[in-house]
Amino acid sequence: MGKSRTKRFKRPQFSPTGDCQAEAAAANGTEPEEDDGPAAELLEKLQHPSAEVRECACAGLARLVQQRPVLPGLARRDAVRRLGPLLLDPSLAVRETAAGALRNLSACGGFEVCDDMVTKDIMTPLVALLKECSTGLDSNEMSPQKKKDQNRNSIENIANEAINVLWNICECSSRAVSIFNKEGCLEIVLKYLSRFSTNVDLAISVAYCLQTVTEDNPELLKSVSTPALHVLESAMLSPVNSMEYFLLKTLVAGTIWNLKDIIPSKSQAEVINAILKILSEVLEMDAGETVIQMKEAETQRIKTTAETEDTLQNANGDDLMEDDEMEEIPHRRKVRRKTFISDLLPPTDKELREAIALLTAQQTALEIIVNMCCSEDPTDDEWEELSSSDESDAFMESSLSECGGQLLSPLCLSHEVHTALTHHLLPKKIFDKTAFPNSIAVDVCSRNPTWKPLIRKMNTVQCRALVCLQSLVSLLDVDHLGGPAALQTLAQHLSQLLFSQPDFAKHIDFLEAISSALRALLQTMASKNIPQCMTPDQLMTLCNAGVHSSNVGVRVNVVSILGITGSVLAKEDGTLDTLKTIGYFLLEVATKDPCLVVAGEALDALFDVFADGKEAEMASVQIKLLSTLKEFQPVFKMKIRKEGRTKYSPDQLCVLDNVKMNLRRFIAYQEIVEKRLTT
User: Fold this and answer.
1) Least packed by Cβ within 10 Å: which of 48, 90, 601, 621?
2) Which candidate, 568, 608, 570, places its Cα nearest to that of 586?
3) Mean pLDDT rounded to a whole number for the chain
């Protein structure tokens, strides 16, 4: 039903897997149980006069909320309203654990829980806490150095938990975003971002939050000042090149892209050049080799540490024993609140953090490029109106203009932009990321439980690259993609990726991504009369697997691919049998797929395949195309009338109405064809 539009990427709810320490769980009775008895006990302890008890209760709740069955019970017992005031508890430790519990609750509960948290006014104490932390960091600068460091760490830890709560809630609730705008939270969180040089973890959390709240938020744009832009600029152009800083800079680049509507026309080139320069640098890195190197570094570090400890114990065993005996036993065991939840950058060993940061940065970079491809180009009048902002001009005339290099701009803006894109080799770098993950890196990760989740991250990067490739193929000129030969090479590459996996149909994300890329590529090749590379057998293997997928997107893609290929074959000689096979297949899908969107795409493909050509006309008669469509026409109309308004969006209904009208016209055309061929 026409060319597909790539969906914009939203930040998915991250899936928490981290647990509180077992000691805290056992002490608070938070092991999984079917009733909400533990929840009731923990919620009661939140009011205890002892800060230590309140802290442990929050820690127990932080673990408990990761068990989805307990969430309704916590909602009945008003857990949010009980935890909320503890964000402003006199004890810093309680504040941090309360924020950690709310962070887990917002992450595990999803949209409904987050919206309920806003209804129960969690934003009031949350915003107050963020303001207090900001003020606390300012006043702390006057303290003695040792105390300053201790206080700063505590306050920044609290702020990090609170920012993550804010991020999760704003991701799920437009009301939370409205409150964010109204309460002037932008200025607050930017103050935390400005500390990126001393606390990159906090800065990354802020950058994630900013990327969320700045997307499609015109109200917020009014409050973006010159100092705010300078903070973003400083973070994005940081000279530090560690993996975590690459992630930070990528996220900030995404935020600045979201703010593009306040950038004057004369500064577009410099700003977008800076954005794509960072994305290019991130994608240039070999994530597989990095994972291997980081795992080797971790192994060596652990080995060296163990050898050092053995040496010290052998040399000073007696002294160490005396020291151990004299050491005062603490009255309670401190709970490491940072381990409440598995963050996108979990607080684990440095090497693992670095590897995760790079993979996340590459995934984010690819998503930003896709979103840039999907952005609508503002009119010249809009850009002219925006250019009146003196403050934005002052910002853009700063060091962003010093990034150097060829002009880079959004993919939809101009021919010059396309040229610059290829100059920076982004299509080539994206192409490279579509390959399967490094097999050695996968093997290394598979043998270590803490590294095993990286396999999924590597696969996700591949899928994002395939979607990104789809966008580039749809938007760039053939010359900017390397010419006809390069497109044929790309088609062979995608075919090899697909058919090198015997069980490709089981990998839904991969199948949807690669079928989307193939669809866009074959459409471009067909429009430029470039010979296609998939054999009929390969084509039908893909379609037979894809059409039985539970994913509607996969089914739509394979049907469209069949229509594109069939329309090309219809113009060639000796393709009668293949066209008949395609026709039977598309009729089967059109008449039997339960989804009207897929059925409509199959009908659209039939219109394309059998619209013209001697071979196509003969095939249409032999497969009884006319009689089958005439029989199906009233059924299709009835299904649209019956299911349309309840199951499909207005845009989908509009397309289906067009298909219905085209079906009537196509039947009239086929009547003429059949009459001519049978008389």
Assistant:
1) 90
2) 608
3) 83
What pLDDT is attached to residue 271? 83
Q: How many domains does the chain have?
A: 2
pLDDT the model gives residue 380: 35
**Cβ–Cβ contacts within 10 Å for residue 103, how many?**
26
Distance CA 67, CA 605 (A): 46
Q: What is the DSSP letter of 491?
A: H
d(C-alpha 470, C-alpha 560), whole Å? 14
Decide which of 132, 162, 183 is a domain's last residue. 183
For 648, the domain range is 534-678
Q: Give every CB contact of residue 595 below 8 A, 6+ residues apart in sequence.
A: 552, 555
User: Where is the domain boundary, 183, 206, 240?
Assistant: 183
**Per-residue DSSP letter, 348:** S
Q: What is the CATH number of the domain that holds 619?
A: 1.25.10
Straight-line distance from the first to the last Cα atom of the chain, in angstroms, rounded to the nearest whole number? 33
Q: How far apart are CA 459 and CA 407, in angstroms?
A: 32
Task: Please report how many Cα atoms fall inside a 13 Å half-sphere around the Cα of residue 639, on the Cβ side.
Answer: 20
Residue 310 lies in a domain: no
- Nearest partner of 64 among 45, 42, 97, judged by Cα: 42
pLDDT digits (tens, 9 = 90+) for 351-370: 999 999 999 999 999 999 88
Write down how long the chain is.
679
CA distance 181 to 161: 20
User: In terms of Cα–Cα distance, which of 577, 667, 660 is closest to 627?
Assistant: 667
DSSP, collapsed to helix, strand or coil, labels residue 611 as coil
618 by Cβ neighbours in 10 Å (0-12 / 13-18 / 19+) ranks as: middle
In a domain, 286, yes or no: no
- Say if CB 383 and CB 14 are below 8 A apart: no
Instruction: Give start and end residues of each alpha helix (H) in 285-402.
Output: 287-326, 350-374, 380-386, 390-396
Around Cβ 415, how many Cβ atoms within 10 Å? 9
Q: Is the pTM of this model over 0.70?
A: yes
| CATH assignment at residue 69 | 1.25.10.10
Q: Is 358 helix (H, G, I), strand (E, B) or coil?
A: helix
The amino acid that residue 194 corresponds to is S
Specify if 633 maps to a domain. yes
Grouping H, G, I as helix, E, B as strand and the rest as coil, residue 18 is: coil
541 has pLDDT over 70: yes
* 542 part of a folded domain: yes
* Tokens describing residue 296: 């080797």
Q: Which two tokens stand for residue 406?
A: 């060829």
> Which tokens belong to 185?
């939270």
Rounded CA separation 379/384 (Å): 9
